[in-house]
Amino acid sequence: MMASPLTHPPAPSPDGSLFDAYSDAVSTAVSAAHPAVVHIEVGGSRAPGGSGSGFFISPDGYLLTNSHVVHGARELRVFLADGQRLSADLVGDDPDTDLAVLRVSTHDIAHLQLADSSAVRPGQIAIAIGSPMGFQQTVTAGIVSGLGRSLRGASGRLIDNVIQTDAALNPGNSGGPLVNTRAEVIGVNTAIIRPAQGICFAIASNTVRWVAGLLIKEGRIRRSFIGVAGQTVPLLRKLIHHHRLAQETGVLVAGLEPDSPGMRAGLVEGDILLSLDGVSTPAVDALQKLLTSDRIGERAIVAFLRGVELRRHAIIPLETPGRA
Fold first, then answer.
1. Rounded to two decimals, what is the model's pTM?
2. Catalytic site residue 174?
3. Most buried pick, 67, 104, 209, 229, via CB within 10 A?
4. Among residues 67, 98, 224, 275, which one is catalytic?
5. Whether residue 275 lies in the annotated active site
6. What pLDDT, in 10s, does the model give residues 68-108?
7. Where in 57-211 does DSSP place strands (E)?
8. 71 catalytic, yes or no?
9. In the chain, what are the domains?
């Protein structure tokens, strides 16, 4: 009787090893991050109620979420990963970046660290944790699909340096963390494009760090305004050549608030703004970026076209009134 030939187990698949490494990386990050992630229920004057996600950023109860989750709320309830239910107070709210800080009365709570979002690279693993459709502690994973995106917030301002990801987000994920494989927060999940598949956005952690610090310190973000309703418009080619302009578009003054800095400076509807203190304003968003807190009460020079004439007037931006 002939001996049976020796058989050997199949060699492990390289792809299988990669999948195992990916799975281990995601599950390890989730295990480290999930104790700091919360479900938020909202009761307010503008709606019968709503919900979202959030996460702790300090051991003494400060937590982050989206402004659109909590704006206008009268009552905030936070459900921790261990089942605790706590009341929360709104520390500060910034609709312009869609971020808000809450605080609950607790100590030594698990919390997450904010990563340096400037070090984030397309293709790296991105993990979203939150409460989509009310299902708490839901995890989705994908990659960073793009960087440096801009997203228009509810206030009308552009949120810059937004992270695009294909980690699936749904209503209720808003305010939850987008983390890397070290369970560090690279962004705060904020929006989805409903007709699209796999196009979701998160506010970059460097923006989050700046906004959260000011909200905790002052309760708000100060910005300046000039009281102009603007519209980006193309400039006539002959005016570009005649005045030797380095831009092809400007900001049309479509309206002026009564007794605003713009009106006091002598601007009128139909003027086209070109620059503020020598920095060009080819679009409404470029003008908004220049209206920072350090310009409040400070004299500046606005250059604009009135008909075919190039003019320069002094203007003193004021602080943007707080939103209710």
1. 0.80
2. yes
3. 67
4. 98
5. no
6. 999 889 899 999 998 899 999 999 999 989 999 999 998 88
7. 62-65, 73-79, 85-94, 99-104, 125-130, 138-152, 158-165, 177-179, 185-192, 200-204
8. no
9. 16-221 (2.40.10.120), 224-319 (2.30.42.10)
